[in-house]
Design goal:
The chain is mainly alpha-helical. The chain is built from twelve helices and two strands, in the order ααααααααββαααα. Pfam families: 7tm_1.
Amino acid sequence: MSATGAEGPGACNVSFSKFQEHMWPAVTVEFFLAFAGNAFAIYRFVARERTWHTGIVYSFNLAVSDLLYALSLPFLAAYYYPPKHWRYGLALCKLERFLFSCNLYGSIFFLTCISLNRYLGIVHPLLVHGRLEPRHAKLLSGAGWLLVAGLSTPTLHFSELQPRGNCTECLGSATDEQLPHYLPYSLFLAAFGCGLPFLLTLFSYAAILRTVCRNPHITWLEKRKVGRLVSVGVALYAVSYLPYHTLRNLNLHLRQQCLLGKAPHYQHALFVHSAYQLSKILVTLNICAHPLLYGALADSMRGWCRAPRGQDRAAPAACPKLWGAAPPSSARRQPPSEPLSEWGL
């Protein structure tokens, strides 16, 4: 797959750098947005949230995960700046790839926890009322960090530095020799780290939307708000997580075919590789978008964003209740003392 269209095993190592030359400005912008947004979110959680419910616990851990990875983005932006060259040694190369993997699957894990938390609170409120406490969310978050670290640890083995002319590449996947072992690992991550959480999230939001839409006592505006939040949750997978895992494994498959002497058409491989690079930008863009989701879970952040000019923004906004002032008898499944805001809706 050379630039002239030649095909052969030697083409497997060709780096399509033209598209990557334009990635460093996007990564730079993402760093500033992600650092500012997530640092501000963590500050509001710590300094302004008097009572942490389960949704706040998951959101705080998601913000910490995003901020940790955002701190590695300046190195990545400098790496992509032409000529593409990693100047920081093997240890930082492995650390950057490890942080990316931890953030990716940590984000998916905590977003899934948030969606399941909303599902239990809205679809089965009596089941969790008085039983689902912040300490449970903290324990689950701790287990989540251990799980994510375990899933990401193999990247420390596979990530390597590879000479490319006068430059050095920090591989995000594996060398050609390690590819037969890396591809099954990548497929496992796609199934267990993305596919399963996506199905759980889709099920949760479908049940939430069905429950809310079938309740005649909820206004159309409230239903539309819930619909928007559900759409955002599903869109995170549709525009970033699912395309990224699909394109990553397709790109790895083309590399493997090339190594077996079955080199794909150059234009096809170029399109897949370029789309894969774009999907990495979209995945990283999520750490800039997540702070917008925190606002739906944090009373203090809603109060800061919505307070009229001249009003004390430190005072949390009042929590709207799902059923209004007087819940009807048909709404017994929703405890009247539980505000909808506690579940991020």
